[in-house]
Amino acid sequence: MRIIGHLDMDAFFAAVEERERPYLKGQPIAVGSDPQGGKGRGVVATANYAARAYGIRSATPIQKAWELSEAARKKGLPPVVFITSGFRKYEEVSERIMNIVARHLLPRDVSLFEKEPPALEQVSVDECFFDLSFAGSFEKARKVAENIKKSIEKEERLTCSIGIGPNKLIAKIASDFNKPDGLTLVPAEQISAFLAPLSVRKIPGIGPKAEEKLKRLRVKTIADARKLTEEKLRLMFGKWGSELYKKFRGEDNSPVITDKPPAKSIGEQETLPEDSLDMKVLLPYLERQAQNLASYVIKEGFKSFRTIVLTVRFADFETVSRSRTLPTPASGAETLRRHVTQMFFPFLDRRENPKRKKIRLLGVRVEKLT
Ligand code: TTP
Ligand code: MG
């Protein structure tokens, strides 16, 4: 039995900005180009759910978004906070999310080694398909999905929505079904009832034009669309009509195309039980990670590493990585520990931590393995 999952982050860019600025909690936020007091050009990349209540969403012209915000302000509602996007940052968060998902698809020890690529296909910055067939049943797949959601919540303080179905088509429609923070399962026997009341627009590929064409035949829901014969659909849409005929019935055989395995690296990261800036608390964590990592390197059949990456996440979720590439390959727990500690000290003072923020997570990774 195939069990496929689809994950999509909720209001992704906006949620990343919101978590980094606690004072924005609950405020309407639009991420995109600069509105320049209503004269700006460009569009909104995304809006959080509070700003969507004002009618602002992805691709809304920024000028229009500004007007909607002003209109809300005149009604006594909070104006929209406009944030210009930092795509680089979202890519980094995206990568960490994909790693979290991947981790849950593999036995614990194997995931650490990034050995076999997990059956995960990233399809955009904030969404991916993954194969959950290994779980064996929908109920067990639900457990895995719940754990993925919990890990993302705990490690990234972000919410996502997950759909689970017998194929990619159903998984994708299901993840969108109960946003934000949803988890929707649609086993094979429920496909027909699940799809029936939905708008034809929920079928990926059906945009405003196809919707309009169908509307002329008084077809609005997928149940309506199922009354059309395959021949009729082919007349209307050409070859694509046959695909649509299947999609209206929830049929889809497309495979999860496993992404290329990531570059060889081995890493560990750990969220501390409590935020801290106390060297006596933090150093033992790093030392233990260095120790573990050095033995994983050997266990994985490598002799040496050349690049060491230290990741520090502060209490406010700002995340900084510093790497050091050695002139020659090195090995051993003691060497690793020494470098990691040296790299870490600046985070305890002005050099890397001028605001003396507490630390929430520490991670160490080694690369250029030979
Ligand atoms: P989406 O997943 O479509 O949107 P979203 O995550 O913001 O909100 P939802 O809760 O409905 O999933 O897109 C993911 C990110 O991609 C989004 O945060 C910003 C970016 N994006 C654009 O830059 N332009 C666009 O037109 C769209 C649709 C998305
Ligand atoms: Mg999304």
Using brief descriptors, characterize the structure shown.
370 residues, alpha+beta, MutS, DNA mismatch repair protein, domain I, DNA polymerase, domain 1, Dna Ligase, domain 1, five-stranded mixed sheet, four-stranded antiparallel sheet, globular, binds thymidine-5'-triphosphate, binds magnesium ion
Low-confidence stretches: 109-113
Highest CATH level, the class of one domain: Alpha Beta
Q: How many helices?
A: 14
Strand content: 15-25%
Secondary-structure element order, N to C: EHEEHHEHHEEHEHEHHHHHEHEEHE
> Can you tell me the CATH superfamily of one domain?
DNA polymerase, Y-family, little finger domain
* Main sheet attributes: strand count, strand direction, barrel closure: 5 strands, mixed
The gyration radius over C-alpha positions equals 24 Å
Here the CATH topology of one domain equals Dna Ligase, domain 1
Named once each, the bound ligands are: thymidine-5'-triphosphate, magnesium ion
Query: How many strands in all?
Result: 12
Structural class: alpha+beta
Taking the alpha carbons of the first and last residues, their distance comes to 40 Å
Helix content: 25-40%
Q: Strand order, main sheet: write it out.
A: 5-6-1-7-8
Shape: globular
Arithmetic mean of pLDDT? 93
CATH architecture of one domain: 2-Layer Sandwich
Quick structural summary:
By secondary structure, the protein is an alpha+beta fold. It is built from 14 helices and 12 strands. The strands form 3 sheets. The chain has a 5-stranded mixed sheet. A 4-stranded antiparallel sheet has the order 9-12-10-11, covered by helices on one side. The chain has a 3-stranded mixed sheet with strand order 3-2-4.
